[in-house]
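RETRY 2/3 - previous attempt timed out on the joint model. Re-submitting the same 763-residue input unchanged.
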Amino acid sequence: MIAGIDLGTTNSLIGVYESGFPTLLADSNGKRLLPSVVFYGNEILVGHEARRMQALHPEETISSVKRLIGRRFGEPEMEGIAGTPGAPVTLALGGQNRTPEEISSEILKRLKAIAETRLGTEIARAVITVPAYFNDAQRAATKRAGELAGFTVERIVSEPTAAALAYGLDKLQDRSKIAVYDLGGGTFDLSILQLDNGVFQVLSTHGDTRLGGDDLDRAIGKLISRKAVLDSFSSSDGIRLHEAARTAKETLSSEEQTTILLPFLKDGESIEMTLTRSEIEEVCAPILRRTRTHCLHALGDAGLRPGDLDQIILVGGSTRMPLVRKMVAEIFGKEPNLSQHPDEAVALGAVLQGAILEGSLHHVALLDVTPLSLGLETFGGLMNVIIPRNTTIPAKAGEMFTNAVAGQSGMKITVLQGERELADDNWTLGSFEIPFPPSPKGAARVGVQFSIDADGILQVLARDTATGSEKIVEIKSAVEVSDEAVEAMLSDSLEHAFEDMDARIFTEARLKAEEMLPAVEAALSQLEGELGSGEVILIREQAAQVNAALTSKETARLKNALANLDNATQSLATRLIEKAMH
Amino acid sequence: MDPFSILGLPRRPLLSEEEIGSAYRKLAGTLHPDQAEGDTERFRELGEAAAILRDPARRLRELAGTASSSNLPSQAAALFPQIAAVLQQADTLIEKNSVASNALSKALLSAPLKSLSFDLRASLLAVGTWRNSLEKELIRLNAAWPGIDQDAMHLVADSFAYVTRWERELKERELALACTE
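RETRY 2/3 succeeded.
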């Protein structure tokens, strides 16, 4: 029996295919949703028990670990978490450094135990879902987490694809095009599929692995603390605030207003306030607007217009928010389809994929794609795409390279994933050396072949065609660096971090000023004759302040002057935009 | 490898996206490695064959065989200066907009971005007109098939290659522009 698992940022679920139906399994308290929270105390607690410990022991409790899986320090997504750039992320919990895959495996172990208790049999095989936009390292790390929990991971499947399967199961005769808008706890994906007689073909997918319900909760939390005039709070209070924000978001999906009640914060203070739906919508809208870009990209890649889609399926807990539904309707010009259970569709799809693999569900096939282009770094530091994004997997492609210099005795191959032109702007999956005997220019030939398996995980094969020597290159996930090495790198970078902090902030402000000052001049000359002399004098004065602060090299003064100039020029910006529209 | 026979489709210049897609999905549904009769190698080959047939340029070259010489279609030569200029302009402005970190710098770009959007539309229309005439040409070739001159087929294939590439590049910029809103 193959279990289907949705390993979510906030909640996880497990299910199996039983007598022709997918069923999700509940724990002994009758709960199917297991909070993705782990507590490392005298014992390891997972789920609801761990969540209860979180406010009391914030340092020993970890939630949303999915945001860190397969990540390295120093990636733009890792802001706020200190560590040596390039090293795999680890977290100190319960007196030990732990990897995100170890922590995730605790959640998976618990799910495994729930299923085994319910079914009275061992469950050793699993299908685990990941966000469609997860890269190679994140997929490999998730697979590893499953193995650490004692599963044979039969398949890593993309979440929106799984949800599409759950949606389409009772419509196998249909031919239609659908989009799945999947706003999870920490990630967003938009996938477009063609359904055709039991074949579910993904046409395109686009997303953001750092955009989800967590971000909405954080924005609401900030709103609450701003309204309560709390400028700092302990980490326990922060967790209570986050919880209150989440509850408010959920309540305000059906109510117009709610009361926030947080007694006994630090110093015995309490918060009691009313929050309305329109207040939280105001702070959530900028975050949700970011999903539009991904929808447009996916449509463009599929070569479709919004009107070509038959259904827009919503999944993920936060799609219960009325604002999400409104925005989706605006983007696609069509009311979204709410037939799927927002929390359970992905897990049900994982169960169905398991049933396909074990041969109990016939005439259904999922054709998924690789979300990001895979390629090699070329001589000039550019990305040379070998397998373009949205290629159906499993897939294979290769290229032949020759030596550029006579007498060269090897070639360095760097494997990249991403959509940017410059190699450095993409994610480096790994690099390796192919040695060959020194030969005249153009005589050595190395064939490099990429193959992506059905899990979306890459394997690279390099072959020196002259000698026939072959090398299979395992693309190492970001896991295998020793604890000591990581620790050494960590302390190193922390020391530097403090030294450099002030200099860095000044440099950022200086760059901003250097961009702002010429923009002010340009705006003033374009709007010449349309501005009152008083306004012009005021703006010039603020610009002079910025110049003075630049010379004085005082960080705080420069930041202040910039903020004032920004304020003083606000009406200029509005007028320029109005002028452009007429 | 003959992509037409892999997909079980007739060897001819004209095939619709619909025909290719249906044939592909029908076979992919049984060849996918998850299926009882699945075969990873054949599944990959099927994907590659479908990609060739979906692209009119590659499909025509497949039918015509090796080219005697490569062509620069006169339409391509005529359109090139306009397309190249608008693409370059787009990249410059989109880059400027993405690094603009304050409201004023962004506002300064709103007028040039608006005219860029207009230029992109105009170029896409021009390329679209060319595509329409090529599609008519394709119908004529299909009717005359197989009694067609190889060079004529290559000329149409090369023309399609330009159209496909330019449409892709222009649409990419248009999308990037839409995302700046």
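Residues 477-498 of chain A have pLDDT under 50 and may be disordered. Closing ticket.
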